[in-house]
Amino acid sequence: RVLVEAGADCACVSTSDKLTPLHFACDSGALEVVEYLWGKLTGELPKSASASTPLHKAALKGHISIVKFLLQHCPGGVDNITSSGVTALHQAAQGGHADVCSLLLDKGADPLKANVVLQTPLHKASFEGHEAVVNLLLDRGSSAAVLDHEGLTPLHHAAAGGRHAVVDRLCQDPLLDVTQESKDGEDAAILASKNGFKELASKLTRHGYIKMCRDNLRGQMLKRCVIREAFDAPVATSRLDGAGSPSSAPL
């Protein structure tokens, strides 16, 4: 307050990354400072050189009171993206802040919005091993089957980080193919093994084997149903010939 009253510019930016005082206040969790600075601004979320807003800063650090304040005064900024396509939900998911993620989703954040490398918030939470966030995102419309630019699912990311609990949760998604290979031809089990998580790799291999058995069983059952239907279906034994009279020849 003293600095502002002495003539300091509330909208000034740092030289390199163009961060405003509001960015720094949101990053540090100083709600009183945020409220004061907001009253001096124009009512829009300022953007840094990378198009990051104060909401991104608060979401990453899990400052839910500041996130609430910013969304109350600027609800249209909930899905603002940085130059790399990152939303506040990406940041909150990466930081493991389930309460902030829930608030952002309630305010209209898109759980399937991808950044420039096609990673969704679920990819971020899965790699970091944030089980509560993963559960929340899956319950609120995220998909474990979404591929990023390298052909990696959230399961690949969780496996690469050795996240056992997250792997177990993701494998419950019926749309997920546990044996999905990346563009490099690697499935989640291979990534886990390469990074030294042998037990997790074995678990994923078992998941893949079970899926293969189930798929084969479904295929066999479907084949039997088709064959049975072909042989058991009633066969029409009459038709109209060219003259319009019934014929005994089977169709």
Automatic annotation (TrEMBL):
<dbReference type="Pfam" id="PF12796">
    <property type="entry name" value="Ank_2"/>
</dbReference>
<keyword id="KW-0040">ANK repeat</keyword>
<keyword id="KW-0677">Repeat</keyword>
<dbReference type="Pfam" id="PF13637">
    <property type="entry name" value="Ank_4"/>
</dbReference>
<feature type="repeat" description="ANK">
    <location>
        <begin position="84"/>
        <end position="116"/>
    </location>
</feature>
<dbReference type="InterPro" id="IPR036770">
    <property type="entry name" value="Ankyrin_rpt-contain_sf"/>
</dbReference>
<protein>
    <submittedName>
        <fullName>Uncharacterized protein</fullName>
    </submittedName>
</protein>
<dbReference type="InterPro" id="IPR002110">
    <property type="entry name" value="Ankyrin_rpt"/>
</dbReference>
<feature type="repeat" description="ANK">
    <location>
        <begin position="117"/>
        <end position="149"/>
    </location>
</feature>
<feature type="repeat" description="ANK">
    <location>
        <begin position="50"/>
        <end position="73"/>
    </location>
</feature>
